[in-house]
Amino acid sequence: MGLTRVEIDADGNVLAEDWRDFVYADALGEDTLAVRGLRKAGGRRGNENLIFDGSIVNVLDGQCMLIMDRSMVVDLCAEPGAYVYDASTEPSLLFGNLGENLLSTFDTAGVLYEKKRSPSKEQRVYYFNIHEMPGSAFETERPVLFREVDASIGLDADISIRCYGEYTYRIADPMLFCLSAPEGIQEPLTRDMLEEQLDTEFLEALGHAFAMISGMGIRYGAIPGRAMELADALNDVLYTTWRGHRGIEIVSLTIGGLKASGEDEAMIRELRQNAVLRVPGMLSTRMDGEGNARQKRGRWHPPSSVPRVWSCACGAAGNTGPFCVDCGKPMPPETGGWTCVCGEMNKTRYCAACGRPRPMNHPKFRCDRCGWEPDDAANPPKLCPECGDVFDERDLA
User: Fold this and answer.
1) Residues with Cβ < 8 Å from 215, sequence gap 6 or more?
2) 57: closest CA among 90, 21, 32, 88?
């Protein structure tokens, strides 16, 4: 029972033999998955889809034609063209771009034939859409758990994320798809008949696929750019129910949006901030960045560019250098520092030895505009006596 390619004319005739039946299906739209074949006999179009020895079978691009004998597959063709059906030969099994891996399915779903085996009178033709089915939208109604691991900040926890997007799929094994179709294919089988079930199974598999890509070291914020890996993971999770049972597989996946819960976002942000405080190099970079931002706002000047004005014990006031201009005594050391729990004496907001922040009970103020410091660094006046700037949290040194 095989197929032999032939040429047909514009009227659908083969070698001017108008007596042959002509079995075909119109082009299948993106919403149609499968239809029964139509038979044109004696110039009349009929709804009966039985096929007989010597019939012409036409296959369009993007279609896969199956000849079924009750619940068994007789032959398959996924290569566009017109073919004469010969019931006395072995199956042709023209897989086209579906791949020869369908042979294993045929061994299970097909029939073992002997040459010149008489076919039954119940052989029918079905056509399947093997184009990529676009635009199946999904959205998580409930949060999906994702294990976020980031050793650099000490994070290893399950976080709750929501996401939405689209996926495409195709019929990769029409034989399995045909055999799994509910009650056979009596009427055109459309996407809306299956996609509610497919979407439910897709969302159930999403959590398992997230676990797989988390194990690959992919963080949740990088998922939109790693949609290919997520699609592969989903195909692995869905293999039994989709590829192995229905003969369909995911082709592509697009993540339109992905967001962790507010609580989890705050946890990750806090861990990252704490990680900065633990690393002196990262801390200095952060402080430099904050200083540059304040300088651009016109509210800060580097302390090293503002000379310290001090009074000497001899009575000379207005000294700006390291020694008194009258008596030559050296400038006395500044006071008002704080001692860290590690033992380091500091005058800045963070410990120079271990990076710990200054305790809240040890505030130290210095004018962020001119650099002036009050004698009691913890109790500044309301206004700076040098430039008139208001003392507030920006002036905490």
Assistant:
1) none
2) 21
CA atoms of 165 and 111, how far apart (whole Å): 42
Rounded CA gap, 202 and 183, in Å? 23
pLDDT, one tens digit per residue, over 225-269 is 888 999 999 999 999 889 988 899 999 999 888 888 888 888 888
Query: How far, in Å, are 34, 179, 364, 395, 396 from residue 360 at the CA level?
Result: 72, 73, 10, 14, 11
Q: State the DSSP H helix or E strand holding residue 364, giving kind and residue range, or none if neither.
A: none
Beta carbons of 56 and 20 less than 8 angstroms apart: yes
**Count of residues making up the chain:** 397
Residue 374 pLDDT exceeds 60 = yes
Tell me: pLDDT of 111 over 80: no
Q: Band of the pLDDT at 148, cuts 50, 70, 90?
A: confident
- Decide: helix, strand or coil at residue 27: coil
d(CA 239, CA 246): 9
- Between CA 184 and CA 188 the distance in angstroms is 11
Q: Give mean pLDDT, residues 110-136.
A: 72
Task: Look up residue 329 and give its amino acid.
Answer: K
- CA terminus-to-terminus distance, the chain: 90
Within a 10 A sphere around the Cβ of 41, how many other Cβ atoms? 16
Residues contacting 103, CB < 8 A, separation 6+: 93
- Cβ proximity of 64 and 106 under 8 Å: no
Paired sense of beta strands 22-24 and 56-59, if any: parallel
Q: 108 and 115 in contact (C-beta within 8 Å)?
A: no
Q: How far is CA 85 from CA 82, 243, 264, 354, in A?
A: 10, 29, 63, 84
- CB-facing half-sphere around the CA of 173: CA atoms within 13 A: 24
Q: In DSSP terms, which residues pair with 22 in a beta bridge?
A: 40, 56
Could you tell me if 94 and 3 are in contact, meaning their C-beta atoms sit under 8 angstroms apart? yes
Q: Count CA atoms within 13 Å of residue 128 on its CB side.
A: 29
Please report the DSSP string for 179-197 in residue order.
HHSTT--SS-EEGGGTHHH
